[in-house]
Amino acid sequence: MKDKFITTINCIGGRVQLPIIRYIKSEYSVQYVDMITEAGPNKILAENKDIDIIKSIKNRVEISIDNHESNLIAVVGHYDCAGNPVDEIQHIKDIKESVKNIKKWNLGIEVIGLYVDDKWLVNRIC
Questions:
Q1: Is residue 92 over pLDDT 90?
Q2: Cα separation of 62 and 64, whole Å?
Q3: What is the pLDDT of residues 16-42, one digit of tens each?
Q4: Which of 29, 38, 87, 114 is most buried, taking the most CB atoms under 10 A from its CB?
Q5: What 3-state DSSP class applies to 19?
Q6: How far is CA 124 from CA 15, 27, 92, 118, in A?
Q7: Percentage of residues of the chain with pLDDT beyond 90
Q8: Contact 3, 29 (CB under 8 A)
């Protein structure tokens, strides 16, 4: 059986890694989760201003797709994020905008948004 991967663009915060991995593996029946991490990635991708970081994220996403045949990208935001210290409503707006911006990369795979709440539960946003 071919290894199955999904790519996440997740925060560097260690508290969100395991909830996201568990959720992805459970919901999508994959073996591995490639983690691309940045501090507050949903803010970076929503604002679409820091071109160097965005290029770096895109490059790492393409490596995951090309080498691991990842077939889904999940953008993650989370409660109490130091890199994007906003409320849940703004996180959700940022996640939705991030998904829109990543879809413009035309990578040919599904892009979803996830939010990890104050109980460390994962919620699919879009």
A1: yes
A2: 5
A3: 999 999 999 999 999 999 999 999 999
A4: 114
A5: helix
A6: 18, 11, 10, 15
A7: 96
A8: no
State the DSSP string of 62-97. Answer: HHHHHHH---EEEEEEETT-SSS---HHHHHHHHHH
Are 71 and 110 in contact by the 8 Å Cβ rule? The answer is: yes
| Sign of CA pseudo-dihedral 80, 84, 86, 89 | negative
Q: Please write the tens of the pLDDT for every residue from 36-76.
A: 999 999 999 999 999 999 999 999 999 999 999 999 999 99
**Structural domains of the chain, ranges and CATH numbers in brackets:** 5-124 (3.40.1050.10)
Check: CB of residue 3 under 8 Å from CB of residue 31: yes
